[in-house]
Amino acid sequence: MMQPGNVLTFQQDPETQAVHATALAIGCQGILIRGNSGSGKSSLALSLIKMAQLNGRYAALIADDRCYLTAINNHLLAQCPKPLLGLLELRGLGLIKMPFLRQAPIHFLVDLTHKNDIERFPEQDNKHKSVLGITLPYQQLEANNSEFAARLLLQALEAVSHED
Prior knowledge:
- The protein is an alpha+beta fold.
- It has a single domain, classed as P-loop containing nucleotide triphosphate hydrolases (Rossmann fold).
- The protein is built from two helices and eleven strands.
- The protein has helices spanning 41-54, 146-163, and strands at residues 17-26, 29-34, 59-63, 66-72, 75-79, 87-90, 94-97, 103-106, 108-113, 128-131, 134-142.
- The strands form two sheets. Strands 1, 2, 3, 4, 5, 8, 9, 10 and 11 form a nine-stranded mixed beta sheet that branches. The chain has a two-stranded antiparallel ribbon with strand order 6-7.
- Strand 6 (87-90) and strand 7 form a beta hairpin.
- Helix 1 crosses helix 2 (146-163).
């Protein structure tokens, strides 16, 4: 299991892409949350971390708001820009300090969107998306509904972990 401050090393120097997203780890699973500004990425990350910790699971922030992604060795690696390490921004509250990992592999992708844009019964082809050529399990969730979205996402993570 990844612990705070652990750093994965690779022998290549691959290209890194900066994205507007939030990344976190629950247990051994990295989650990348994308969405428009103000869609609730940080609130969802905080809800997931708190729920996981209440259930005795390891949880930590990787990056909030800005995340560096690298595809290497058939994995998607998320890293946090140094000035943002361990910081989560909550609208109206400012920056709060969180337990964090400097980097971790991503295993699951979430897009926060308007509820009317979410497929009620997604086709099997829409349950995975590719990021930098890496295919990940994928879930669309309603923006700005972090408690409900967190419960759904934790169930989805359980289902994905049992498929392996």
